[in-house]
Specification:
Elements lengths: L2 H25 L13 H7 L5 E8 L2 H10 L3 E6 L4 E6 L2 E7 L6 E5 L15 H10 L4 E3 L9 E6 L5 E6 L2
Parallel strand pairs: 1-4, 5-8
Antiparallel strand pairs: 1-5, 2-3, 3-4, 6-7, 7-8
Length: 171
Amino acid sequence: MSRKYTNILLTVIAVLLVVVVLLMENSGVTETAYAGQGEDKAAQKENGMQLGNFSVSLAVKDIAASRAFYEKLGFIAAHGDQAQNWLVMKKGDVKIGLFQGIFEKNILTFNPGWDSEGNALPTYTDIREIQRQLKAKGMTFTMEADEKSTGPASFMLVDPDGNPILFDQFI
């Protein structure tokens, strides 16, 4: 496939991801991904897992071009450092991470312990507890958090369609 068609295909995929995220935001679906936002206390107690902040992390080829593209859609740079090849773009509660040369594939990302603004939550489900609960449900991991550790940690799994899902706790 020529470079021109590859770039067109990547642009189409990026636009489709944005459309899906915006549709999810408008339908209220994304609110259930945010701990303490949209998920009532009874549901949190029942499922026992607060997944925290949610974002889509995109593996981009040219971070400057991607930033300009998403800015045209109304996103603003909220976190990160373009010089280090990563930015988190924000539009309302929707977050899209742009990562050049850091990830091989696009990733769904949950940040236990953070709200949608990246602020520490007063209470949350620790990443190691989420990992234990998912193991108990038979989930298979491609990367695991050290369950004997405390503080920041991460683990990763892959959904049935090959989409990587990163659980990344910073606190």
